[in-house]
């Protein structure tokens, strides 16, 4: 008898909403409390497992007069939104390697409403990231290691990094397609390598996909098929540059009855239609070009914020001739 797995669901899959954190990269984390609270309430109503509210940014690096509260995620600011977080959802913040004063700014878990620290690292920052992972683990947090810009990492470097991270106390290892340049075949290969590294350690594997080539959703599905159980998504696909895997598509695909798609659709209608008039994200042509050339989207962001925002061919030729 032929099986039809697409009508069932995998209960061990967990979804993390990073709407406020990744979306905050568009507007320097200057979201008003009303929007953040709406996203928090939506994630609860939708049955999402985690919500990531922002960063633990170092104020010596990121000037407070240029960034909003969600660049720093102070305890008082988080509690202003979630209270004691008595809901069945976990609170996440991201700590960038070399951009977080983690010894000072990440308090012991018993003093915080935060549940998980996600340590984001480039390959050359692994030693610092491992120390951050150990610090957060020792303070009582669940910890994730997010390995960024994988499309720029050499195979030998990746194997060594995965070996080191697999021996760390991180609970989750996350595949990050920072430039939105990966195709499904590559995602499949990365997922298998991460799962192999995590085998026997009790660690989960996750994916954070960017939508430069309109593949964030498809690539997330590919990772699910291989066995990845921790999935990042954002409401209406919001996020820096081209944005991320859209939550509304992902929950629909997962079919788990605990998820409530209507709550996400309601939030889009009530908040994100107007937000889209104030902030720009999505798979615009310059982001497709940077993905094609395996480049960070910052140059596309700068181009779109200039008087040359429609000079697509000039932008393409700049990279083609580099």
Helix-strand blueprint:
Blueprint: E1 14-17, H1 19-23, H2 33-46, E2 50-55, H3 75-82, E3 90-96, H4 102-105, E4 116-121, H5 126-138, E5 142-147, H6 155-167, E6 172-177, H7 184-198, E7 204-209, H8 216-226, E8 230-233, H9 247-254, H10 261-278, H11 285-292, H12 298-304, H13 312-320
Parallel strand pairs: 1-2, 1-8, 2-3, 3-4, 4-5, 5-6, 6-7, 7-8
Describe the structure in your own words.
By secondary structure, the protein is α/β, with parallel strands linked by helices. It has two domains: 10-278, TIM Barrel; 285-320, no CATH class. It is 41% helix and 14% strand. It has 13 helices and eight strands. The protein has helices at residues 19-23, 33-46, 75-82, 102-105, 126-138, 155-167, 184-198, 216-226, 247-254, 261-278, 285-292, 298-304, 312-320, and strands at 14-17, 50-55, 90-96, 116-121, 142-147, 172-177, 204-209, 230-233. Strands 1-2-3-4-5-6-7-8 form an eight-stranded parallel beta barrel, surrounded by four helices. Helix 11 runs antiparallel to helix 12 (298-304). It is globular and about 55 Å long. The mean pLDDT is 96.
Which features would summarize this protein structure in a list?
322 residues, alpha/beta, TIM Barrel, 8-stranded parallel β-barrel, 13 helices, 14% strand
């Amino acid at each position: 008898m032929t099986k039809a797995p697409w009508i069932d669901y995998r209960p061990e899959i967990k979804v993390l909403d990073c709407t406020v954190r990744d979306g905050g990269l568009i507007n320097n984390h200057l979201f008003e409390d009303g929007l953040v609270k709406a996203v928090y309430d939506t994630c609860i109503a939708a049955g999402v497992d985690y919500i990531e509210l922002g960063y633990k940014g170092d104020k010596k690096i990121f000037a407070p007069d240029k960034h909003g509260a969600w660049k720093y995620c102070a305890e008082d600011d988080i509690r202003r939104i979630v209270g004691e977080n008595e809901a069945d959802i976990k609170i996440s913040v991201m700590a960038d390697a070399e951009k977080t004063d983690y010894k000072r700014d990440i308090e012991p878990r018993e003093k915080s409403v935060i549940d998980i620290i996600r340590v984001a690292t480039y390959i050359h920052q692994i030693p610092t990231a491992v120390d951050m992972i150990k610090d957060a683990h020792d303070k009582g947090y669940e910890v994730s290691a997010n390995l960024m810009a994988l499309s720029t990492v050499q195979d030998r470097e990746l194997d060594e990094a995965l070996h080191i991270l697999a021996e760390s106390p991180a609970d989750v290892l996350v595949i990050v397609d920072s430039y939105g340049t990966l195709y499904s075949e590559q995602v499949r290969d990365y997922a298998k390598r991460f799962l192999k590294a995590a085998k026997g350690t009790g660690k989960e594997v996750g994916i954070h996909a960017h939508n430069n080539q309109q593949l964030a959703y498809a690539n997330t599905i590919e990772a699910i098929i291989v066995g990845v159980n921790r999935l990042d998504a954002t409401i209406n696909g919001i996020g820096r540059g081209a944005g991320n895997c859209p939550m509304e598509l992902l929950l629909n695909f997962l079919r788990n009855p605990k998820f409530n798609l209507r709550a996400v659709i309601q939030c889009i209608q009530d908040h994100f239609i107007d937000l889209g008039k104030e902030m720009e994200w999505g798979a615009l042509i310059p982001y497709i070009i940077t993905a094609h050339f395996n480049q960070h989207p910052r140059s596309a962001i700068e181009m779109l914020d200039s008087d040359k925002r429609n000079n697509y061919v000039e932008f393409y030729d700049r990279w083609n001739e580099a």
